[in-house]
Design goal:
By secondary structure, the chain is mainly alpha-helical. The chain is built from 20 helices and no strands.
Length: 523
């Protein structure tokens, strides 16, 4: 679904024949037919196949688009100044928070509820469109006050244009959620690629023409329009706005706690930009934005690819605790095996990476990236736990977790930023996550009979390998000169010390080991 933090880039293609033949619960049955029960044994093999295929295409989608986003970001960072990024960051904070709440959380019902989608999707779309429109109207009039409070009055026009994305999100959220529900990630890939090509191409052209931060806003809206066209044409069911008061009440009871939790999640990942923006200038905020974006690479590449199918997959296994525990152990171990070396490399080689990729003018961002890399790794774990609690209906527990997180993080960021600028803000984020958030998730997951401990034990090898990679960087950096040479030598040495430690984890790959043995192989 088109939520914040996830690119809504898309391109029009025809639906693939293979996807068209997939059975779609609650969609492909004739009207009036009894939807099949996805928990029956006959459906288990089909679900497993679709989850696997969806996960593969989701990974392809995420990797290709993230790579494209990184490359386009490099181009834009070399065209624009840090202050331009700071102005855009002010507008982006607002639109990100709005998109966390704009459909009031009801779109998750499209993925989570195992009933005929045609019954409630029209009401979901109506709620999403109306609430999004009202939020945009309020944002338009409050934009000057918000930008003044952020110390960036030049961001008003950018904010008003960029927040049109909130309205477009209300239209796209239901068809996008249907694609996720049915694991139709090839169609999602086509839509996201269309948006990326359209939006990024226009953004770069406008930046070269001298439009500065406004180029981001116009490009984003163009990409969103392309994605809407694709979502509406590729979804296996055509949904139009409708209204059922009883369903609306049920949807709001389901969605509002999740929307509140999502708003808190997005507040947590954006409050640092608000604090840095208020306590510093646009250029410093631009440095922080680049550092935070780079630190998010492991999470966005690995975790978001898994998340597009994990919620639907977990929902199928919720009545089979042993299978769910095994899936968590295997999945988390593999995620960490891929994410740990990436995060450690980002932190250990922050300065040469920023200089080589973005240019010497971005080197000051390294002091934040060195610490935020650890936060990026922590977010991989947190998002897996988040989806598990959603599967178990733990939306109120999520509200408690994220409410505590935000309540502690805000003053910590203020103190950290005042004492040590960018580095202080980054350190506050990492300490609060490690000392408060992870223990809270562990506590609440035990209440559902699910233990994260055995799954974390499967991450021992990646942790040992990551420590070796970090240690090797203290040898490489003093001995090697030049940003590119340092990165190449560092990557080679990292592979030499990391792969022998984690190679036994190949048993976690599907078809390599039994479902009953993942923890043993992971250690």
């Amino acid at each position: 679904m088109a939520k914040s933090g996830e690119p809504r880039h898309a391109l029009s293609t025809s639906a693939e024949p293979a996807d068209a033949t997939l059975p779609v619960p609650g969609l492909s049955e004739p009207a009036g037919a009894t939807p099949r029960d996805p928990t029956t044994p006959a459906d288990a093999g089909t679900v497993g196949t679709r989850v696997g295929r969806g996960a593969l295409w989701s990974l392809v989608n995420t990797v290709v688009l993230r790579l494209g986003t990184v490359l386009s970001g490099i181009v834009l960072a070399r065209i624009l100044a840090p202050a331009d990024y700071g102005v855009f960051a002010v507008a982006l904070v607002a639109v990100t928070l709005l998109q966390a709440f704009n459909e009031l959380g009801v779109s998750l019902a499209v993925v989570r509820w195992q009933r005929d989608v045609r019954e409630f999707a029209p009401t979901v779309m109506t709620i999403a469109i109306v609430s999004s429109g009202l939020l945009y109207a309020g944002t338009y009039f409050l934009a000057p006050a918000f930008c003044a409070a952020m110390g960036s009055p030049d961001a008003v026009g950018v904010l008003r244009v960029l927040c049109i994305a909130v309205v477009l999100d209300g239209v796209a959220v239901v068809p996008a959620a249907v694609l996720n529900r049915e694991f139709l990630q090839r169609r999602r890939f086509a839509s996201d690629m269309a948006s990326f090509v359209t939006g990024t191409g226009l953004t770069i052209a406008l930046a070269l023409a001298g439009l500065g931060p406004m180029s981001f806003a116009i490009g984003r809206i163009a990409g969103n329009l392309a994605s809407i066209a694709c979502y509406l044409s590729l979804t296996p069911v055509k949904v139009w706005p409708g209204w059922n008061p009883a369903l609306a009440r049920e949807l709001l009871r389901f969605g509002l706690p999740l929307a509140g939790s999502s708003l808190l999640v997005l507040s947590i990942t954006n409050v640092d930009q608000i604090v840095v923006g208020v306590l510093s200038d646009d250029a410093t905020l631009g440095f922080y934005l680049i550092a935070f974006n780079v630190s998010s690479w492991p999470m966005t590449v690995f975790s978001e690819a898994a998340r597009r199918v994990s919620l639907a997959g977990f929902s199928r296994l919720v009545d089979d605790p042993p299978a769910l525990q095994a899936a968590l152990t295997r999945g988390l171990g593999l995620l960490m095996a891929m994410a740990v070396p990436a995060a450690v490399m980002l932190g250990a080689y922050a300065e040469p990476l920023l200089v080589f990729v973005y240019g010497a003018k971005w080197a000051p961002a390294a002091v934040a990236l060195q610490l935020l890399a650890a936060l990026g790794l922590l977010r991989v774990l947190v998002f897996v736990c988040y989806d598990l609690l959603v599967t178990f209906g733990g939306s109120r527990r999520l509200l408690v977790i994220h409410g505590c997180w935000l309540a502690v993080l805000l003053p910590a960021l203020v103190v950290g930023t005042r004492l040590d600028g960018l580095r202080g803000a980054a350190l506050a984020h990492v300490l609060v996550g490690c000392l408060l958030v992870v223990p809270l998730f562990l506590y609440f997951m035990r209440g559902h009979g699910l233990r994260l401990g055995p799954s974390l034990a499967g991450c021992v090898r990646p942790a040992i390998g990551g420590a070796l990679v970090l240690g090797s960087s203290f040898v490489v950096r003093p001995l090697v000169d030049g940003a590119l040479t340092t990165l190449l030598v560092g990557a080679l040495v990292a592979a030499v010390v990391y792969l022998p430690v984690t190679y036994p984890m190949r048993a976690l790959l599907p078809g390599r080991g039994g479902r009953s043995r993942p923890a043993a192989h992971a250690r």
